[in-house]
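User: Fold this; tokens only.

Assistant: Input:
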Amino acid sequence: MEASGRFCMASVAPRSVSRISSLFDVVQQGQDNLGTKTRRGKRRAGFHPSIPQVQLRGKTMRSSPVVKIVFMSCLVWGAGHSIHGAEPNVLVILTDDQGWGDLSLHGNTNLNTPNIDRLASEGAVFERFYVCPVCSPTRAEFLTGRYHVRGGVYSTSAGGERVDLDETTIADTFRAAEYRTAAYGKWHNGMQFPYHPNARGFDDFYGFCSGHWGNYWNPMLEHNGEIVQGKGFIIDDLTDHAISRIQEPGDQPFFIYLPLNTPHSPMQVPDRWWSRFREFELRMHNRDQTKEDPDHIRAALAMCENIDWNVGRLLEALESTDRADNTIVVYFCDNGPNGVRWNGDMKGRKGSTDEGGVRSPCIMRWPGKIPAGTVVRENGAAIDLHPTLAALAGIPTVNPATHPFDGIDLSAAVQGQSLPAANERVIMSHWNKRVSARSNGYCLDNDGKLFHLPTDPGQRSPVNSQHPETAARLQEAVRQFRKVVMPGFDDDHRPFVIAHPEAKTTQLPARDAVAHGNIQRSNRFPNSSYFTNWTSPDDRITWDAEVLATGDYDVRIFYTCQEADAGADIRLSFNDEQLNATVGKAHPSELVGAAEDRVVRSESYEQNWGILEAGTIHLNAGKGLLTLQATKIPGNKVMDFRLLLLNRRESREFGKP
């Protein structure tokens, strides 16, 4: 019997062959049309800490005790068949800026999270599970099973959040196995097609692609590329969409990815939860209580309790549809807490490569298959979820041999079996050129200090001298990571793709643009920002872009404009083509969001955007600078600019979109 390839890619089920071929075709076309980041190459592909190479069936694989254990499991399960028979559904819940300590199951008496606690009691809990210090890298590592620096993610905005086109996602794997795939929430790994979730394996997408959103009540969102208005509080709305997907009739299994966007700021939460915390006296505090912001903590805890309520709704939906017993539910967070609050005495918070910045809860429940109350002693990480979930579902992964997983299959561990060799590997954490490494219970921080985390979670007492061999091994792993993986990781020459032949609509937000002249961004954080102070014909807004499909495109601009400023003439141009239009109608707006914020925000406020139907522009395929500027300004300024949409018209060349 041949191995299934869930970790080792030794063989692939026949129904996946055409999918893999199409993936290679897409990758090759993407590279030919778009180019790739210059820093990617063999020097980065070969790094795997502490795992030597071995030839297996003509392909270079990684060999370790972990691989041997997983490979034998593959032999038993067989290619393309679930471990337990019928292919299970999968529901993955990811929260945003919720720390390890923001759950009552970890001993935090400041809040109650009974539904998430119930998940833990009915399934498996990782004792130590690691993500990235910030959001987009964690999402990339979950999707690909590979370190984010391999896949082009080096920033949280302005294009640096995009996952390279030659990477394969977990949605690709499950869709190739004929799952219905859906994502609802904060994507944060690319907005324009082919970086959009609909191009990365997800049949259905509802939410937003940016790194954060400026308003959580009835916000502007998108559904499969089309701009829509959300309904009510965003977390409840996203959960409603997941529930609707769960309730769809039929036997085809589903894979639902629910990346919720709280407790990320702005700190907005319905009264039902805020009322309990408004005057709440905090009982548990951070190791440095003097740095706490009590109101911010109260708002974050209220948002976490709202998340828990929605988790309860999801569990109820699974039970009412008789799908609970055949659904794997996963719950984890994308980084450490977004503020100074209780987090188990760990050092660091969001943005840090120390323990408090990268340790996340991770819970897996599959009734009858994952023993209730299981504690996984082996270290786990976001990079492990792709191979692990594929193995549990009994489906082959579809990433090519040139892109092996950094993560490993921990399906045996979550089912209660011991995999001690898994702890021998080194898990790397990186952000902003800071690197830490973990193996067994040890952490080597960015300064080269070694700590034993079970006895010193606060990283107060280095143990380099007591454990010199461990320190040397982790130092060498860090050295190799910096030498092999990191060089050129942020050397990005990918243009913003506009007018892709498989996408009817292209979104070009202010976030991805560059402002020139007097134009100012509404906030130093680009995500969910807009441009203002557009006062001169010399001012302009530009996107470094590449048109893939020649054709005619209707242009819509999301803007606001005071009555006294109406009437400006504007021009959109790309190489030799241009479109002239007039901002003929005023659309004034107050700033939106302050009234709903429980704490004064640091990000941009929103506005109630009007839509300017600017006309139609012809675009020829090729690279260039897409430029928006004014040719006449009768008032004090042109407009406040939020978003430009290109909507491809039907043509005989591409047919009906």
